[in-house]
Design brief:
The protein is α/β, with parallel strands linked by helices. It has 19 helices and 16 strands.
Amino acid sequence: MEDLNVQRGRALVIDDDPDMHLIINEILLPHDFVVNRASSAEEGIITLGETDVDIVFLDHNLPGISGLEAIKQIKKVCPHCQVIMMTAYARVSDAVTAIKSGAFDYLTKPISPNRVELMAEHALKVKRLEIENIQLRGLLVEEKAFGGIISHSQAMKSPLATAKQVAPLDSSVIIFGESGTGKELLAGGIHSYSQRKDEPIIAINCAALSEDLLSSSLFGFEKGAFTGAFKTNKGCFETAANGTLFLDEVGDMSQKLQSSLLRVLQEREFCRIGSFKTIKANFRLITATNKNMEEEVASGAFREDLYYRLKVIPIQLPPLRDRKEDIPSLVEHFLRKHNATNGYNAGPFSNEAMNALRVYNWPGNIRELINVVEYVVATKRSGKISVDDLPGDFDKYTDENIKTGSIMELPYSSAKQMFELKYLKRWFTQSNRNISQISKSTKIPRSNLYNKLKRHGLI
């Protein structure tokens, strides 16, 4: 048998006969496999939700859930597990049925050690190839994603469609959204799809700089224009020539600079600080803010005439709590990225851990999610990620909270999401995934139900 010590293999034997676990463990132990046991399908499915497993040796005749039904449930919990069905009765029809149900292969008892070894080697290779293919497909999808934005949620369809539609134009765009929602990524996407894509995009955060420093950064300055100006410097207006200028948190710009920016946009020219020589302003302007600009204008904090110059094409980015169906894809992307950067092999997330991420309200949006995944990779480094591996108090956001009553300590929005997830999961299981039946029983309109199931990752 080919050496399997390159990476430890993990197997689970689901059989009510304890001797079967001992036999398979004895066969695979020399090949550096860790072999665990479950005496029923129900116990095995729980184990798969908590432990990373490569191969499942599944008895055909089990108490409770049958082996064939168990295959379907195993594949839901652990899609890449290779299931090998075991039976004392060798019938071609049973083997075909098992394969059609999702089994990798079929073993007849008493099992042959050589056959188990070869089958385990092949199954392990297939699983790793499946994961590599998914990762490659993920990289291809990400390369094609608009500005690197990963999303298939309904909430993101409209902003992304607008961004793609207006990208080839030279019109000014203002992006609204909470901090951490990906405004700069969207701006980069608009630039990369524009006629100016071969020229630079220059980004500057208006909230991070003092008024004087922001002014000199935008306009540039001549040598000797002020104390410390030892040489002439080009500003962002100039370096963004023929390209795109992205002003992040534009709502934090001072009144004086608002007037200066308005003049540049009106006249399409400017002067460096300390000079009277005019320079043509040939850039496409994209701005972003996390503020309510109508309120800023009404209070006099932001110039109305400048605001309407910026708001030619407004785009609103939703917070992460409104696009939770994107969380699994985002987590997979960030997990892959941080593992590759650090040379680790953390993951995947257990079902319970992923559900906790879905229920959490994400006040810090995608930026906070990135930090959570980076923390987990740094501390876990390898293996399946459980709720206990998550930072902070994510253990509050588990199904157990509904039973213990500690759900009362959560914010209303998170508690509501937890209850809805638990409620729908139960109906989903009871109805055997029949959406029409669930809709009829729960009185939830079918289209609304479909969106809820999708948001919670149940379909």
